[in-house]
Predict the structure.
Amino acid sequence: MNLILLGAPGAGKGTQAKRLAEKYKIAHISTGDMLRDAVARGSDLGKKAKEYMDRGELVPDDIVIGIVKERLKEEDCRNGFILDGFPRTLKQAEALDKILLELGKEIDAVINIFVPEDEVVKRIAYRRSCRRCGAVYNLIYDPPKGDVCDKCGGDLYQRDDDKEEVVRERYRVYRNRTEPLIEYYRKRGKIIDVNGTRSIEDVFNEIVRSLPKKLNF
Ligand code: AMP
């Protein structure tokens, strides 16, 4: 099963993508996680990406498309994948079509998680991420048991781009550049709309219920 998750920053894409990847045993491909990892390692890619990420802007299409193209060829994508945070522009969506055609794969469904701006800003201000394993918590909705990560004991921190001003810029970028993709995929009959303002569990159950029956194995 090959899925795309669309939604504003803070809509819960990462959380839902992790759960879906576990349930369906498919690869979770988060371009945000891959870029943050490159920044943490200080690689050439990381150095290029950091300045855009810190400002809440999109990393140039060519860079991100290159990363995804390589990632989709890996062994763990054979059973399927879930793209979280990609594509984010029309150019990326068109490039993805081409890559999938070359690989003989296709997208089964595009899950569009909707959450209004104020809710997004509120959620992200309380978001904390694990520096070691990337687990994500919310101090209000999904708090860790203590000061460190429940899963691996790593340090919890607030992403630089999770500060309010940067979040508002990321939301603006989402509206201008990524929202048009909803129509792009709706025209192809691939969109599943999900109200993302409810609990993690409710949103997850709705996604699972809404996936085309033939995919629910
Ligand atoms: P995310 O964790 O998905 O919110 O991504 C964090 C940041 O990484 C974004 O604000 C962008 O700067 C960058 N990024 C992640 N995915 C993409 C993408 N598909 N295209 C361009 N930039 C991206």
Q: What stands out?
A: Residues 9, 31-32, 35, 52-53, 56-59, 64, 85-86, 88, 92, 161, 170 surround adenosine monophosphate (CB under 6 Å). Strands lie at 2-7, 27-30, 81-84, 109-114, 127-130, 136-138, 156-157, 191-195. Residues 164-178 form the longest helix (15 residues). The chain is about 45% helix and 15% strand.
